[in-house]
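Hi, here's the filled form for the chain we discussed.

Project: internal
Contact: R.S.
Residues: 480
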Amino acid sequence: MPVDRPNIVWIMADDIGYGDVGCYGATKIQTPNMDRLASQGMRFTDAHASSAVCTPSRYGVVTGRYSWRTRLDWGVLWGHSRPLIEPDRATVGTVLRKQGYATAAVGKWHLGLGWAFKPGARELFPEDLDTYKWSRETGEHIDYTKPFTGGPTALGFDYFFGIAASLDMPPYCFLENDRTVGLPDREKDPYNAQQHTGFMTEGWRDEDVDLTLARKACEWMARQCAADPGRPFFLYLTPSAPHRPCKPPEGFRGISQAGPRGDMVAVVDHMVGQVDDTLHELGVADDTLIVATSDNGARPYDVDGNTYGHKACGDWRGVKADIWDGGHREPFIVRWPGRTPAGSTCEQTVSLTDLMATAVDILGVTLPPEAGPDSLSILPYLLGERPDRPLRETTIHHSMDGMFAVRRGPWKCVLGLGSGGFSPPQRAEPEPGGPAGQLYHMDNDPQETTNLWLQRPDIVEELCAFLERAQAEGRSVPRP
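And the returned structure, exactly as it came back:
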């Protein structure tokens, strides 16, 4: 039987780390809105993105499926990359819309779009547009007057407003439903920190993006509540911040003690507050399950290498892109009035891929057998229950360059040496007689400093066998 039919609001920042939020230990960045959510709900301390970088992590959230099962087994997509989600793939949007929900995606998409080419231009490019080279050189050959395919409105979302990819990738323009808002017909000017060359629309300003996204999200909720007051809604809101170029809007410059990137974390917190304020103004806050999280770990320094004494990934080893926990352990805050105990903490392991299975479990329905093969319901945790056994016994992690790790209980087995991401060494060859990978006991060694690979070959064998089965069987959680 369904527990409820709450509105569901999923707010997922771009590159916020475990240590960026006040209730997770941040002192140089003020996050009063996320802290308030935590005081009114539940704070998870062992929540993980399915990947340490954005595209594969977002694929996992939207589909309940690990991205390495697709063509994207390492890296990320670009602004002109083709769609990653298959047209017939179940998404959290299609699943909830089938249950009567109104659905919207607002923010950074970064899962590929089917752009239209100008006459005669398509043959200039290979079929695979995922690589940076082709994505960068494609812009002048795209016909932005035509709709794109394979976007959110083709994948279960009634409404979409956002940007194609990260804010350092062209095209620099807003998208609404299946078209650009205006035409990106001029070269980006100015280029801000680490932005890639490409086209923008007239008047484009990087610093306006996130406040515009928050406004659009709140306007959609207001329209939906006015048009159909009894219908529940699902909002997937994905800020572009604090990912580079870190251009704080007026009123936020210098608001933190952690530089421009810290200021952009404060912008995300402001967006959370705007959404929460709107829920209260509409009278639906008590009927809404709201989540605040991030797609992967942080790059804890600015473009000049400054950290400002702020530990964006907390005390965890590694950073964004890495297989170590700093790359994928996320802040994860849930408020569900009357259901989730206020001021509570959950120390159990969960994955962002669990959104889909949890949502349908709340509604008392089951997923089709082929849907959400890596999604597991965490509803008992949200209700404050403490099952005898962990709900998620085994979790698979993935780094930017495709390195795997398997976590079960306190054990974390990394299939390779190095970070698999940004931290040196990215990869290392085994020494004669030395370990071929990494094994850590996360309870005794949370900073992943003591490699037990050679001491516990039984654990290594067990976790490697699980990964092989999950790859071969196409799912990592029991069938519903």
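Let me know if anything looks off before we file it.
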